[in-house]
């Protein structure tokens, strides 16, 4: 079955790919298949597997969305060098559909992880910390904010 | 409008994710290894900031043998591609002395002026002997010969405007002219898929830039209305000048601009129109005069017409055609005219001769034949590719046809397998195209014969089957009885 790819007006090639169809499905499928992978490699319970997926997701997405700044190619002459990927997406407009989706995914993962581990410690503590940091980092008020100068410019 | 199979979109994202993840892993280990090795450059700033060379090092270098292949003959319909080999996994290449004769589907040789031409080449050689290879000066110092004046007069006759100015480089024409035409306090509205020369010129001008959805006049109107109502960014004063920049044929899509609607909207809202005819001048239109002739737009309605001589005229350089006042202003202000070296005289002579051939002033009808042949070739090739089930972009009559590949692994697969079968194609990926939409771009020339095209179709069909890019169902083959088509087996 076919989808139509409408041309976007986003000139930032680093974030434009997120506006095409199929991204959300790919994201969810990657999470699901990584859960299956963790289950088959570590032979653990489903709850521990979801916790591992949640924490790995936290590490990867925090690093790529909220830590790394700029774009991975040099064609745009560095105009986005001070912005993280999260701040570049949708041209900096807040509360778009993409941003809402990306905020909901860690929360849903947290709920699944805590439910399948029956809210036991220490997994609950780690999961809660991860989701707290993730969701706070995505608030509209945190746009271009660098707490205590962490990850600020030289 | 690009139609993607959903599964292909999902698998393409996954492939890029995997490539990205592997790249990060290798970078991680490389940082460890480099920490052990000492360097004697202490205190120097790094050459690349952050990870702006990540894409080049980890994705582009893997398939670098598909790009920048050296050739060793003129870019005719068939040419010699130099064979290279790499000892360090595609980071550096060594050329061999062997060449392979391949069918050229990549050069912008639309009218076949890219190689020896019986009218143009003797005149160019004569001009080379008389004037030598370069003028060694800018236009205002000692770089204007009577050939340059004749060239500008030829261009005005060809394009249909009162005056024209010619520059030595097509990219520099855009990036040096736009800052002269508009400055801070002006507004540039450009199509989202405009060429990087226009983007650089717009950024260098200091004007505010807004983008409208590719080739969608209704979105252009909406952006114009919103911007005119809003005014300048902080002061909300009215804009000093509004220029709308569009291209004749978009080089990555092969689509022809909806120029009549764009011109009507610009007239309504009193914005200037800047038309970049790099690929369309000389290639479309009944007598080759470009998109205005094809779509029936009066050239007086387009304020600035820009074009390049690299594609249809077999030379180098670019021109700007407009009113006499505009061209006089440009000749006094534009740095590309005042300081850059003027176009070499033999190249100027090549353009004059090519224009004479196209207009039929050399006494033969070769120009009309070339134009008819490129139109026939493009329409035949595009129709056959679509019948085979490929997804081909572009409008009818456009000599540029991208075949969609999507998946990053199919980019080198298509390119290398075609080269093995002696067909040279150009593949384009991120970041020249959007991430998802990698393509192989085919440029048809008037010097391709029908047999060349049929051979290319056979090879592309076989390679397409091998790489799995026939995303649409193929039409059942029928035996054509009309005398124009040849039966394909």
UniProtKB/TrEMBL annotation, chain A:
Recorded topology in the membrane: Multi-pass membrane protein
Localization: Membrane
Keywords: Membrane, Transmembrane, Transmembrane helix
Protein name in UniProt: ORMDL family protein
Chief location of this protein within or outside the cell: membrane
Coiled coil stretches, renumbered: none
Pfam families in UniProt: ORMDL
TM annotation in the entry: 20-42, 101-117, 123-140
One GO term describing the cellular component: endoplasmic reticulum membrane
GO biological process: defense response to bacterium; intracellular sphingolipid homeostasis; leaf senescence; response to endoplasmic reticulum stress; response to oxidative stress; sphingolipid biosynthetic process
Organism domain of life: Eukaryota
InterPro entries xref list: ORMDL
TrEMBL record, chain B:
Keyword match Transferase: yes
Membrane topology: Single-pass membrane protein
Listed CDD domains: KBL_like
Catalyzed reactions: L-serine + hexadecanoyl-CoA + H(+) = 3-oxosphinganine + CO2 + CoA
Entries under SUPFAM superfamilies matching the protein: PLP-dependent transferases
Name of the protein in question: serine C-palmitoyltransferase
Source species of the chain: Camelina sativa (False flax)
Alphabetically ordered keywords of this record: Lipid metabolism, Membrane, Pyridoxal phosphate, Sphingolipid metabolism, Transferase, Transmembrane, Transmembrane helix
Location of the Aminotransferase class I/classII large domain: 102-460
EC identifiers of the protein: 2.3.1.50
Transmembrane segments: 6-25
Record-stated family: Belongs to the class-II pyridoxal-phosphate-dependent aminotransferase family.
Pathway the protein contributes to: Lipid metabolism; sphingolipid metabolism; Sphingolipid metabolism
Taxonomic superkingdom: Eukaryota
CC cofactor: pyridoxal 5'-phosphate
Main location group: endoplasmic reticulum
InterPro entries per record: Aminotrans_II_pyridoxalP_BS, Aminotransferase_I/II_large, AON_synthase_class-II, PyrdxlP-dep_Trfase, PyrdxlP-dep_Trfase_major, PyrdxlP-dep_Trfase_small
Subcellular location field: Endoplasmic reticulum membrane
């Amino acid at each position: 079955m076919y989808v139509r790819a409408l041309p976007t007006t986003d000139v930032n090639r680093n974030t434009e790919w997120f506006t095409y169809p199929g991204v959300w499905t790919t994201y969810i499928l990657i999470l699901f298949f990584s859960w299956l992978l963790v289950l088959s490699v570590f032979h653990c319970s489903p709850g521990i597997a979801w916790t591992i997926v949640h924490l790995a997701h936290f590490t990867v997405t925090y690093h790529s969305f909220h830590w790394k700044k700029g774009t991975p190619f040099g064609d745009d002459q560095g105009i986005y060098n001070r912005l993280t990927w999260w701040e570049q997406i949708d041209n900096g407009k807040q509360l778009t559909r993409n941003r809402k989706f990306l905020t909901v995914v860690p929360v849903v993962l947290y709920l699944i992880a805590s439910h399948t581990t029956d809210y036991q410690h220490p997994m609950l503590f780690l999961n809660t910390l991860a989701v707290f940091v993730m969701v706070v980092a995505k608030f509209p008020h945190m746009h271009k904010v660098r707490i205590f100068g962490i990850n600020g410019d030289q | 409008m690009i139609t993607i199979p959903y599964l292909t979109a999902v698998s393409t994202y996954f492939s890029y994710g995997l490539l990205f993840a592997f790249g990060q892993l290798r970078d991680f280990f490389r940082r460890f290894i480099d920490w052990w090795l000492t360097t004697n450059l202490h205190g120097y700033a790094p050459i690349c900031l952050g990870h702006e060379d990540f894409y080049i090092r980890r994705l582009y270098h893997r398939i670098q043998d598909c790009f920048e292949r050296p050739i060793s003959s003129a870019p005719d319909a068939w040419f010699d591609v130099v064979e290279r080999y790499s000892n360090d996994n595609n980071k550096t290449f060594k050329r061999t002395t062997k060449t392979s004769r391949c069918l050229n589907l990549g050069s912008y040789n639309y009218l076949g002026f890219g190689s020896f031409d019986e009218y143009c080449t003797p005149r160019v050689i004569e001009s080379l002997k008389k004037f030598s290879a370069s003028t060694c000066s800018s236009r205002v110092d000692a770089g204007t010969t009577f050939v340059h004046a004749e060239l500008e007069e030829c261009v005005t006759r060809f394009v249909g405007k009162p005056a024209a100015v010619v520059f030595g480089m097509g990219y520099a024409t855009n990036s040096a002219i736009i800052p002269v035409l508009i400055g801070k306090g002006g507004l540039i509205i450009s199509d989202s898929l405009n060429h990087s020369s226009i983007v650089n010129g717009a950024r260098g001008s200091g004007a505010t830039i807004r983008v409208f959805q590719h080739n969608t006049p209704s979105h252009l109107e909406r952006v114009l209305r919103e911007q005119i109502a809003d005014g300048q960014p902080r002061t909300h004063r009215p804009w000093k000048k509004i220029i709308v920049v569009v291209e004749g044929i978009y080089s990555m899509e092969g689509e022809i601009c909806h120029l009549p609607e764009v011109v009507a909207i610009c007239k309504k809202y009193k914005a200037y129109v800047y038309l970049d005819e790099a690929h369309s001048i000389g290639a479309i239109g009944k007598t080759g005069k470009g998109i205005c002739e094809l779509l029936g737009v009066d050239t007086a309605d387009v304020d600035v017409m820009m074009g390049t001589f690299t594609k249809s005229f077999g030379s180098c350089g670019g021109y700007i055609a407009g009113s006499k006042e505009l061209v006089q202003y440009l000749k006094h202000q534009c740095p590309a005219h005042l300081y850059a070296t003027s176009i070499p005289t033999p190249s100027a002579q090549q353009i004059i001769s090519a224009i004479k051939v196209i207009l039929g002033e050399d006494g033969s009808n070769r120009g009309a034949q070339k134009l008819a042949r490129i139109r026939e070739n493009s329409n035949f090739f595009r129709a056959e590719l679509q019948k085979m089930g490929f997804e081909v972009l572009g409008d009818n009559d456009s000599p540029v046809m991208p075949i969609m590949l999507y998946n990053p692994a199919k980019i080198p697969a298509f390119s290398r397998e075609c080269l093995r079968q002696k067909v040279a194609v150009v593949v384009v990926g991120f970041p020249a195209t959007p991430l998802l939409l990698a393509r192989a771009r085919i440029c048809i020339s008037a010097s391709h014969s029908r047999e060349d095209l049929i051979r290319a179709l056979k090879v592309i069909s076989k390679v397409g089957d091998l790489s799995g890019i026939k995303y649409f169902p193929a039409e059942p083959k029928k035996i054509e009885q009309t005398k124009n088509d040849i039966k394909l087996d």
